[in-house]
Amino acid sequence: MRLNSNLRDLLAEVRLSTNDLIQPLFIKEGLSGKEAIESMPNINRYGQDSIFSEIEELLEHDINTIALFPVINDSKKNSTGDEAINASNLMCETISNIKKRFPEIILISDVALDPYTDHGHDGILKNDYVDNDETLAVLRKQSLTLAQAGTDIIAPSDMMDGRIGSIREALDEMDYKNTILLSYAAKYNSKFYGPFRDAVNSASSLGKSSKSSYQMSPKNINEALHEVAMDINEGADIVMVKPGMPYLDIISKVKETFKVPTFAYQVSGEYSMLKLAIDKGWLESDVMLESLISFKRAGADAILTYAAKEISKEITNK
């Protein structure tokens, strides 16, 4: 049954298509053109004048969903992340412009305060500890501003308790009942996030501070199932596990237990590690595709990956 490639493809148990891939994009305030992210090979920050051409290219490669992350000016950051709820901020303006030009694209917007705070945390600090309930009020407002701008999917990545129920209530009250909630339900306190924090310029703000008081311990499995169950009960339409490949067991458990749409995030550290090894010739280029197939095999319905556009070419060629 493994005699040739046609037989192997015919009998394949798992398939990866461009419909399974979501491309994260970084939009930077005040930037003209694009600039490379040193810690993420082949990945750029885009200005509002250059992001359109990148989206056009993604659509040409049948990548129809993007996840947008902001890189704002340091002068607009403060301890409470007030810029996150400014209806004219970088994210809202960019979302509105993208949806006008590409109404067909599915746009996912991150909800968290770390791109907007001068301390780099996802919530509001009180006595060096993130205040869960005070943060919820801001996340509600942030979600509404993003929905009003035209985003299709609100994706809270902050890991505050109760935020899914609070955001769902706020969206429904304002008649955004069709805005989808994608919860970062099992987001671990991982060391694989480093290049992302570099990309959004939050690493220097965070310094040596830890997010371990609100993100999950890498040692826990049952806690992940508990977190996912809570978010589903509060109204999450889709749940996500982050990071991806080091947590394939969690993806599998979540999908098997809840049988709801389950996404996974191949995070920046995973991507950069593989990409650098490929570029150095230490690993063959097919290793990136192999890693993404492992996500599908574990049960992921879709994958956020910085390699989406690149892998789409391989899928098409195959």
**What form results from the Cα inertia axes?**
globular
Number of helices: 12
Stated plainly, the CATH topology is called TIM Barrel
Number of strands: 12
Fraction in helix: 25-40%
Give the SSE order as H and E letters: HEEEHEHEEEHEHEHHHEHEHHEH
Counting structural domains, the number is 1
Distance between the termini: 19 Å
If you average the pLDDT, what whole number results?
A: 93
Unreliable spans are none
Structural class: alpha/beta
CATH architectural grouping: Alpha-Beta Barrel
Q: What Rg do the Cα atoms give?
A: 19 Å
Describe this entry's structure for a reader.
It is a single chain. The protein is an alpha/beta fold and 318 residues long. It has one domain: Aldolase class I (TIM Barrel, Alpha-Beta Barrel). 40% of the residues lie in helices and 18% in strands. The protein has helices at residues 5-10, 51-60, 90-101, 132-149, 163-173, 194-199, 203-206, 222-234, 248-258, 268-279, 286-298, 308-317, and strands at 21-28, 34-36, 44-46, 65-71, 106-111, 125-126, 129-130, 153-156, 180-187, 238-242, 262-266, 302-305. An 8-stranded parallel beta barrel has the order 1-4-5-8-9-10-11-12, surrounded by 9 helices. The chain has a two-stranded antiparallel ribbon with strand order 6-7. Helix 8 (222-234) packs across helix 9. The longest helix has 18 residues, at 132-149. The chain starts with a helix and ends with a helix. The model has no long low-confidence stretch (mean pLDDT 93).
